[in-house]
Amino acid sequence: MDARSPVVIVLPASVGRERVVELCARVEGERGRVVVCDVGAVEEPGLGVVEVLARMELAARRRGGRIRLRGPGAALLALLDFVGLRLQVEGEVEEGEPALGVEEAVETGDPAP
Question: Distance between CA 36 and CA 5 in Å, rounded?
Answer without folding.
Answer: 10
